[in-house]
Amino acid sequence: MITEASWLYPLKARNPTISRGEHPLTGNRVAFLAIFHGRQLAFLNATFLVLGEAAAITALLFECFFADETLVDVFDATLINEGCSDLVATSRVVDPSAGDPAKQLGKPVSSAIYSPFSLRQIIEFIVFLPLNFIPVAGTPLFLVMTGYRAGPLHHYRYLHLLGFTKKQRNIYLNRRKLRYTWFGITALILQLVPVLSMLFLLTTASGSALWASRLEKNRKLAGNSNDTEPAPNYVDDPA
After folding, report:
1. Distance between CA atoms of 87 and 114, rounded to whole angstroms?
2. At a CB cut-off of 8 Å and minimum separation 6, what does 73 contact?
3. Cα R_g (the chain), whole angstroms
4. What's the pLDDT tens digit per position in 5-62?
5. pTM for this structure?
6. How far is residue 158's CA from residue 92's CA, in Å, rounded to a whole number?
7. Rounded to an integer, what distance in angstroms lies between the CA atom of residue 173 and that of residue 170?
8. Rounded distance, CA 24 to CA 221, Å?
9. Using an 8 Å Cβ cutoff, are 72 and 112 in contact?
10. Residue 15 half-sphere exposure toward CB, CA atoms < 13 A
11. Strands 92-94 vs 105-108: parallel, antiparallel or unpaired
């Protein structure tokens, strides 16, 4: 069903209203890109170029000032709200008597990382930015390349809660490359929105937890709660 497509999950925790207007920093880039792309395509590609630069800076600022712990709390609280308290309890203390999912969160009893910070990923993101200089195909290629790399990281926490080893994690992710790429593309587009990019980092974590809760429920229904790999008859919903 289209409503269960992976690319929709980053959108499920928010419904923003975005005002239209030209980004004040696109002017020089538009003038340069217009030489190769023409005025209309130059504006589009320059917009993604500038917003991509801003997204990289925002990611670094979030890591410095808010830290990964905030995303872990958002992810875990959403899982609890969706009835996956037992999964969260494998990594941290959960107090069901507290009522509110966020208040149920106790101290972690093991490593609590939403998405491991990677300098390599930031460098790759910056390296991919010049793809926007390529006429027509440049911007879509930039989104696909970065989405392909970033998508799986949004379920690092989920697979850690399942106790997967690195090998098991790679097998699981490789079987769902397309779905995670679509998720990563949508998450990236949201993070390119000016002003609201930090908010979308939080809401994307909530959306990834919603997707994880559905995957977990399907996994249990398939009778694979104790398996480290999905059984042959286990089928995800199509992307």
Report:
1. 15
2. 102, 105
3. 19
4. 676 666 665 433 333 444 444 444 444 444 444 555 555 555 666 666 666 666 656 5
5. 0.69
6. 13
7. 5
8. 51
9. yes
10. 0
11. antiparallel
